[in-house]
Design brief:
The chain is mainly beta. The protein is built from three helices and 22 strands. The chain folds into two domains: 206 residues, Sandwich (Immunoglobulin-like); 134 residues, Immunoglobulin-like. The chain is elongated, with a radius of gyration of 28 Å. InterPro entries: Rgp1.
């Protein structure tokens, strides 16, 4: 039996264009006291990053797959297919890299190999929606002599920052370390430059504050005024808004606001409803605030954007957008207003109306959600990023996270731990 362990020292979250580094350790777990006949031999091992795309058949009408490239691999073949046995299509992959060939391990012996690869910048972000799924994985394939290939799949989360696809990496002198005593390799210099550029663009987009006011009205008059300070947010931020109902001529009894994502299938891939297809647009609510606001002059709300969510993006098949979805319940009675208190000669009991005729209407306000700074960059470069963003950000990056994935070649059992 051979044990293969894959370690991602910088955690499983990466920015598209970053360099993934993984240490693969191959071990013969038998005790050293075992006989020499217990030596294990591996023919080869290879590693590759790929993005798997899966679409819901009831929502997305995709063209038939190419039958000239079957996904089934007979056990007698030695071709390395990282997406073998998975659902969907492999839409993006890096060139495979061979880790070793003809390796023999004695009992208790182990060897480690380093694998590094740049994550493609032109791919979609990691996303699991109701219509489509984009899943990134690092697949390590090993094969013993006269045995089928065993695959170890390490899940990854890839975040994409719009606008970095067209940016070229500058020359070496343009990204040289500021300190002559700081040594960095080529990958380190590129990652630090990418982190600096991404941070500047994120801060430029999300730090601008300007009060935007929206008049809310129905067919009978003005309900109130909604105010928000910005429309671009980072993952993990709170969407804060204010609602002024004191200037309205129509009484608002209740309102609710939901932070939602809208997943929309592109028109050329939409399945017709008459053919039994599901709706091409789906909404997911991430946070919600509801309030009874009769006789309320001013109120506010705060909705957090989950760190685990996906920023807005657009591909050839689907688009994802963020929005604030408002629902208002207003009174049809024009006289339902707050009267000033009057002095009564004797005690009086105030009661509310048992029935109030109401109207309901909704309103959608588009917003943008971008990736979070603390998730966009590798955990290993904490000190470097702190130096780069001392004047830009106040978030503290967490310590290094090591993700370990282990597989036994003989049994095929996969273990993972973080």
């Amino acid at each position: 039996m051979i044990e293969v362990v894959a370690e991602l020292s910088r955690g499983p979250v990466f920015l598209a264009g970053e360099t993934l580094e993984c240490v693969v350790t191959v071990t013969n777990p038998l005790p050293p006291t075992a006989t020499s006949a217990s030596s294990e031999a591996l023919a080869w091992a290879s590693a590759q990053i790929h993005c798997q795309f899966h679409a819901s058949e009831s929502r997305v009408a995709l063209p038939p797959p190419d039958s000239s490239q079957p996904d089934v691999q007979p056990e007698s073949q030695t071709v390395f297919l990282p997406h073998r046995g998975e659902r969907g299509q492999c839409i993006l992959s890096t060139p495979p890299k061979i880790l070793f060939c003809d390796l023999r391990l004695d009992p208790g012996e182990s060897k480690s190999y380093s694998y590094s690869e740049v994550l493609p910048i032109e791919g979609p972000p990691s996303f699991r929606g109701q219509s489509v799924k984009y899943v990134y994985k690092l697949t390590i394939g090993c094969q013993r002599v006269n045995s089928p290939i065993t695959l170890l799949r390490v899940p990854l989360r890839v975040l994409v920052l719009t606008g970095l696809q067209d940016v070229r990496f500058p020359q070496e002198e343009a990204v040289a370390p500021s300190s002559p005593f700081l040594e960095e390799d080529e990958c380190g210099k590129k990652d630090s430059w990418l982190a600096e550029l991404a941070g500047e663009r994120l801060m430029a987009a999300t730090s601008c504050r300007s009060l935007h006011l929206y008049n809310i009205s129905d067919g009978r008059g003005k309900v109130g005024t909604f105010g928000i300070f910005k429309s671009v947010y980072r993952l993990g931020e709170d969407v804060v808004g204010t609602l002024n109902l004191g200037e309205g001529t129509v009484a608002c009894l209740q309102f609710s606001v939901s932070l939602q994502t809208e997943e929309r299938v592109q028109p050329e891939y939409q399945r017709r409803r008459g053919a039994g297809g599901a709706p091409s647009v789906s909404h997911v609510t991430h946070a919600r605030h509801q309030e009874s606001c009769l006789h309320t002059t001013r109120t506010s709300f705060s909705l957090p954007i989950p760190l685990s969510s996906t920023p807005g993006f657009c591909t050839a098949v689907v688009s994802l957008k963020w929005r604030l979805h408002f629902e208002f319940v207003t009174s049809r009675e024009p006289g339902l207003v707050l009267l000033p208190p009057m002095e009564q000669p004797e005690p009086v009991t105030w009661t509310g109306p048992e029935q109030v005729p109401v109207d309901t209407f909704s309103w959608d306000l588009p917003i943008k959600a971008s990736l979070a700074l603390q998730e966009a960059f590798s955990m290993e470069k904490t000190a470097l990023l702190d130096r780069l963003f001392t004047k830009l950000i106040s978030v503290a990056l967490t310590v290094c996270i090591i993700s370990t994935f282990r597989i036994h070649i003989q049994t095929g059992k996969l273990e993972a731990g973080i």
